[in-house]
Amino acid sequence: MQTGNMLELIDVSHVYVNDQGASLAVEQLNMAVRPGEFVALVGPSGCGKTTILSLLAGLLFPTRGSVLLAGVPVTGPSPQVGYMLQQDYLFPWRTIRDNAAIGLEIAGRRTKAALEAVDRLLEELGLSGAGGRYPHELSGGMRQRVALARTLATEPEVMLLDEPFSALDLHIKLQLEDLVQETLRRRGKTAVLVTHDLAEAAAMSDRVIVLGKQPGRILRELDIPEELRSASPTEARKQPGFQEVFEELWSELNRTEEGERHG
Ligand SMILES: Nc1ncnc2c1ncn2[C@@H]1O[C@H](COP(=O)(O)OP(=O)(O)OP(=O)(O)O)[C@@H](O)[C@H]1O
After folding, report:
1. Which ranges does the record mark as transmembrane (predicted)?
2. Is the CB of 20 under 6 A from ligand 1?
3. Model-level pTM greater than 0.90?
4. ipTM rounded to 2 decimals
5. Which stretches of the chain are assigned E, i.e. beta strand?
6. pLDDT tens digits for 184-194?
7. Ligand 1 atom nearest 43 alpha carbon
């Protein structure tokens, strides 16, 4: 059945099995993300956020249920899905331009036109002139911008963001939140952001999904009001309605952790 969703998890459970036994990480989860939507996932440590991203990326397969990308079951990693992580994983021996082009190279698409597009992307992300430099010459924020360029170069429809800003200083983090949101929005990308930072979730996304303690289940979905969504993350933080959204998320998470202490 075609639902028009870009991403869908239908009754998904995931069990990790290793020599210590089995661990239920996600239980009967139902979640859908529309094309162009920006969704944030928040929840206590170990509640299954990274597991959900790995299922969406086709790096893991559900023990039960189905994962769909544009209505089609996910059978493995897809060029339609890009991943951005806390660590940039740039290759130290490659120039910035060659790092940004590596996905194209792996896909056999390193043409002159594609490299020109990489240069334009680097320029758009404020890295013009850095193409011939090496990762160790760049700051953490610049390196994350290269990681963003590398992911966008292959033109995925979906971006999975696993705490990509958490290792950065506050000032750089805010700048990068603005840049990432604007860049993804302009291109109409669908995004799923995992973060521990409730303010980041509220400022960047269209909808926040709050997960309960392990095994991950959805406790609450909060639509972000239009006045926050239409602003950049930095501007959204200054809007009158921002504090209310933050407090709702905060109390939902505290309820979860209270339950964990007493449950
Ligand atoms: N490879 C694995 N083998 C066994 N158990 C795992 C494995 N990866 C994760 N888990 C367990 O599954 C549960 C969910 O892990 P996951 O990393 O998805 O949570 P998370 O919400 O992303 O955590 P955090 O916020 O701390 O990054 C945790 O209990 C974790 O210990």
Report:
1. none
2. no
3. yes
4. 0.97
5. 7-18, 21-33, 38-42, 64-69, 72-73, 81-85, 158-162, 190-194, 207-211, 218-223
6. 999 999 999 99
7. 21
